[in-house]
Amino acid sequence: MTAHSSPSTSRGFVSLVGAGPGDPDLLTVKGYRVIQQADVVVYDRLVSPEILSLASTKAEMIYVGKKLDYHCVPQEQINQILVDKALAGNKVVRLKGGDSFIFGRGGEELEELAEHDIDFEVVPGITAAAGATAYAGIPLTHRDHAQSVQFITGHIQKDGREIEWHSLAQSNNTLVFYMGLKQSGYIEQQLMSNGIDQQMPCAIIENGTRREQRVLTGKLSELSELATQAVSPALIVVGSVTSLHHKLKWF
Ligand code: SAH
């Protein structure tokens, strides 16, 4: 393994690091190293304390935690913090849950850095859909069940753009909804009215990869009912692969 460090420049440098879904051991080796070397760590709510504790005691830790529908610190201000800390010459780690490019606004933050000519790198993380299903014993694809998988935001209609329900429902994919708990009734109704069988197995994985992980399973017609028993963070998985949970659960 080659340990190459981030380029050092007087203008500072930003590493956009995905912390993985919860279990701190799922951080990448590269993520581990850049966190240890950081002068400043700007982090979100879903990052585990074990991962934060990897930072040097001299590092400045800035919490910009995000909750569903509510941002502790507005996005523009987060962008400004990153720009200011980098321009001051720091090695900045921007630490996010899962993978920064999957529903993580990583792209938006990098665009801002690019506009200010600030150098950056991206350290990928294990996204919740991959981590939580692995720990739940639900293979996202399987030759007998699903040939593809789709990751979908449950923040539906937020910016006026509706999901293509018809093509989703016809696709025979595994469907993974992020941030979908509150919209579970709508998701259930749209999928069924666009042709998915109400008996289609589905699962809700709550606190995936964490010690408190819980997997609720049922039929699509029971999805919104299941969701009332679940807490955030949780993923909704729709597809026959979820029936394998009972056979393959291990965690
Ligand atoms: N960038 C993150 C996703 C951020 S959106 C990633 O790649 O995973 C936040 C949503 O991710 C939550 O609402 C939930 O749907 C999902 N999520 C994050 N961590 C999770 C976990 N440990 N278990 C289940 N779902 C999780």
Can you describe this structure?
With 251 residues, this protein is of the alpha/beta class. The chain folds into 2 domains: 13-126, Tetrapyrrole methylase, N-terminal domain (Cobalt-precorrin-4 Transmethylase, domain 1), CATH 3.40.1010.10; 129-248, Methyltransferase, Cobalt-precorrin-4 Transmethylase, Domain 2 (2-Layer Sandwich), CATH 3.30.950.10. It has 9 helices and 12 strands. The strands form 3 sheets. A 5-stranded parallel sheet has the order 3-2-6-1-7, with helices on both faces. Strands 8-9-12-10-11 form a 5-stranded mixed sheet. Helix 2 links the parallel strand 2 and strand 3. The longest helix is centred in the first third of the chain and has 13 residues, at 75-87. The two termini are 29 Å apart. The model has no long low-confidence stretch (mean pLDDT 92). S-adenosyl-L-homocysteine is lined by residues 21-22, 46, 96-99, 102-104, 127-128, 132, 178-179, 205, 207-210, 232-235.
Topology:
Layout: E1 13-18, H1 29-37, E2 40-43, H2 49-52, E3 60-63, E4 66-67, E5 70-71, H3 75-87, E6 91-96, H4 106-115, E7 120-123, H5 128-135, E8 149-153, H6 165-170, E9 174-178, H7 184-193, E10 201-206, E11 214-219, H8 223-228, E12 234-238, H9 245-248
Parallel strand pairs: 1-6, 1-7, 2-3, 2-6, 8-9
Antiparallel strand pairs: 4-5, 9-12, 10-11, 10-12
Bound molecules: S-adenosyl-L-homocysteine.
Residues 21-22, 46, 96-99, 102-104, 127-128, 132, 178-179, 205, 207-210, 232-235 line the site of S-adenosyl-L-homocysteine (SAH).
